[in-house]
């Protein structure tokens, strides 16, 4: 293999490691090039976007940044979160959406140890984050906000997300008691153009206001859903598509009486879905589903409990009409035990998106969180901002039994990492006793890695009771996309000499 061949392969490898994907076409027999098995290499650059945390003057927000230790990374690198750098004016609904960049909110010093930052008040902007080198593979950032009173009071949390071009949010609402915003954050140097479509129980809600929304470079726009339609909808599906550029998107759902939380995007439409980690003390659970395609979907509804898969009485199946949002109330479906919802087709598989609205507490002391359908943990997943009390890790193996390794990182202010291994029986959900760093000071991250067996789905609940109100927030743990497959290739010298 000569120097030219090495340069070609090195170029493809570098591109894949930076962008997170690469495609090499299979050669013809006459081309002299043959593809070999792909190598898994750590990514070299990652972007994350954090939405504006709150419009409440009494909001307190904590940011936690963490990168797991990965093999094969470069010796150096950096990661930082900074405020949006452009002033893009008022978004729909009158919220201010950005301000000039200042000192980074969070600057991690080393992989394997969380770094934290905080802010308070209503003027805190969205954040744009970038990690490079050793900080890029598996980089995760948690945004957690406490609001003591007012609409949406409680504990709100979200994993900051990578930019993309399409998002589905079943579970939003334009009902009188709800104030829902879809936050759009643009990390790039050119403007992004975004369309927002709304689907209610009878289909598409006609609106031209959601077409061609411009999100200026390095800025964020919070769009009030009530400004896009004058038709109140208790259960709504929001579809965000990007015409040009890319954005991060999340829905902030605020209720006058039931508190509020962030609704993260559902995983890509699929015939079978898993929504992991319903709290065992949930007093109300609502399933919201939507079919993007032309065919209706019939879904079998089952709960993966600690003892196995069971069918909720009276809610054995759900029929979802094409282009219409459907919802069913499951009540206190978990009945004091850990549980995850598993949706599978009763016949022909039709792609669906779905999410759960979960309520804890009773009377005037209720709080809300959301669980979107999520993808499996895959090779590895991480969630930050855990504490010695108030963190619950739920692991679900909807198919075959799986063995899972869970690592608690060092603490943000001190402590040593600890690892435990759990066996999750097929068809069950377990709220495992997650490890806690020895000598813990501050907060820590949990990293989940399947060891053997079938696919594993996971979520983490943070809980903090204030003045008798059971504040809580739930984040799912999809694969961290810390590595990328880079095909190897060999080339016949004669091809290069022609």
Compose a concise summary of this entry.
With 498 residues, the protein is mainly beta. Helix content is 4%, strand content 50%.
Topology:
Blueprint: H1 3-19, E1 33-42, E2 45-50, E3 59-66, E4 77-83, E5 115-120, E6 127-133, E7 140-147, E8 154-159, E9 166-172, E10 178-186, E11 192-200, E12 203-204, E13 213-215, E14 219-224, E15 236-244, E16 248-255, E17 259-263, E18 273-278, E19 284-290, E20 297-305, E21 308-310, E22 317-320, E23 325-329, E24 339-345, E25 353-362, E26 365-372, E27 381-386, E28 391-397, E29 402-408, E30 414-416, E31 418-424, E32 428-432, E33 438-441, E34 444-453, E35 457-466, E36 469-476, E37 483-491, H2 493-497
Antiparallel strand pairs: 1-37, 2-6, 3-5, 3-7, 4-6, 7-8, 9-15, 10-14, 10-16, 11-12, 11-13, 11-15, 16-17, 18-24, 19-23, 19-25, 20-21, 20-22, 20-24, 25-26, 27-34, 28-32, 28-35, 29-31, 29-34, 30-33, 35-36
Structure overview:
The chain is mainly β and 498 residues long. Helices cover 4% and strands 50% of the residues. It is built from two helices and 37 strands. Strands 9, 11, 12, 13 and 15 form a five-stranded antiparallel β-sheet that branches. The two termini are 16 Å apart.
